[in-house]
Amino acid sequence: MPIIPDLYKDLLSEKLTFAYIATVMKDGSPQVTPVWFEYLDGKIKINTAKGRVKAHTLRSGVPVAMAIADPANPYRFVQVRGRVTEVTEKGARDHIDKLSHKYLGQPYPHSQPGEVRLMVTIEPTSARGMNE
User: Is 69 buried (19+), middle (13-18) or exposed (0-12) by CB count in 10 A?
Assistant: First the structure.
């Protein structure tokens, strides 16, 4: 049985949407960040750079939650919960360019000298939505 209900798959693969991802800091406080993402083979992939808050909170095995709203109707959204299954530098630079093409129509323009990119794979474990 698919984790993401078919009713919301357009928010992950057809529409240009942002995921608001929630993680937990070392002190136990929550942290939320909007991110670009791709949905591929039932998994969600995001990208960040070493040194950013997300890079510290998104480690293999940690739980995450994200909300993805329909840009045409913010009362229609899906909340996905899952676990980070992989964090890797391998392919991360190409991945941020792929995401940038999706969201900006061009290669990633914000790279910094010496920046190391990380690609994070999240396996959904549950999903619920609202469709108003």
Answer: buried
* pTM of the shown model: 0.94
Q: Does residue 77 lie within any of the structural domains? A: yes
Q: Which residues have CB under 8 Å from 110's CB, separation 6+?
A: none
Quote the tokens at residue 50: 């070493």
CATH number at residue 27: 2.30.110.10
Q: How far apart are CA 34 and CA 48, in angstroms?
A: 11
Distance, C-alpha 65 to centroid of its chain: 10
- Band (2; pLDDT cuts 50, 70, 90): low
Residue 40 lies in a domain: yes
Length of the chain: 132
Reported in sequence order, the residue ranges of 1-132 that DSSP labels E, i.e. its strands, are 19-24, 30-35, 38-40, 43-49, 63-70, 73-88, 117-131
Domain that residue 121 falls in: 6-131
